[in-house]
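Reviewer 2 asked us to include a model.

Predict the structure of this chain.
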Amino acid sequence: MNSNSEKNNINRTIEEGAFDNNSNNHSNNNNNNSNNNNKSGTAKSGGSGCSKSVCSNGSISNSDSTIDERVLVDPKLLFIGTKIGEGAHGKVYEGRYGDRIVAIKVLNRGRDAEERVALEGRFAREVNMMSRVKHDNLVKFIGACKDPLMVIVSELLPGMSLRKYLGSIRPNQLDLRLALNFALDIAKAMDCLHANGIIHRDLKPDNLLLTANQKSVKLADFGLAREETVTEMMTAETGTYRWMAPELYSTVTLRQGEKKHYNNKVDVYSFGIVLWELVTNRMPFEGMSNLQAAYAAAFKQERPNLSEEISPELAFIIQSCWVEDPNMRPSFDQIIRMLNTFLFTLPPPPDSSPEERDAAEDASAASNGTMNELSARSRRKFSFLRQYFCRQKDQELAVNRG
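Predicted model (structure tokens):
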């Protein structure tokens, strides 16, 4: 936006509660690399699970949907530029907040009072969760605006999404160390969410954004995230099919909006699929449609193929994440320990200095006891998992021989 007239036009657009696509003339040399950044989730929202009443103006009058006034930004300081992403619930633009380049997510308002209530509740949940959790591997929340439009302002990462990045180098694979470092970034972000009682429910490469140096990733899009409580029941079929945990489905088709129990281990399953992608750089359940992939995972207990090129230790970590029984899946704290343990077993890079090699050897020696730090219950769990996977492999070999 190079002229005051353009800025005033876009600013007026925000205040009037509508967008004029012709006014989005802000140019950015990184626009192609920013495509799909902070993309909104494309699956059905689970709803808030609480009753709400609607005022005469269609806004929510419920304390659960109240947004802390301290996180609200002045809409007059927001300037909308080029659209960089779009999902089922809104659009994401590159823009400015004051003198800062940001990502601006504008959520749909709804076509009628009932839909408006649901979408405003979803917006309030997303804002409240984003504003209370902070981590180096979570996209930084800057603020929100609820009138005249529902807007979430966050940091704009100049890198592309993990999905786009993997696609750009396919069929080549990531360096294993880089893949594991990406996995650790994701696991740390998820561990932070789970420590705050938040289930993301839509963990996938589209929602993972690379930093400018392409050496780290950050988790974005809390659009489907929910707070986890002991008694809460949540909407099934939430998320994106190829990465969804089997317990999000039912052998009997659920009616729209019907609820069922699940917990934060659905994120662990999704992480297992993402970790497999990082290691193989292949699309999970390739050759299948989204629904075929969901059916195969949920009802036939199929998982992406683990080739013999993947080390048994790494294969075990992946398998433990996507095992059928959610209670058998590790926590993200345990996943971080296992990944670090495996990472330290790798030889140092060929171009590393003698000091770096010595440090790697010291770290490897220090990590030998990491798995032993797990509780006795966890060790029994992982021992059982190893036996379980071995039996499955034996059965597959027997079937192939037959």
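The longest helix spans residues 376-401. Residues 1-63, 229-239, 366-372, 374-378 have pLDDT under 50 and may be disordered. We have added this to the supplementary material.
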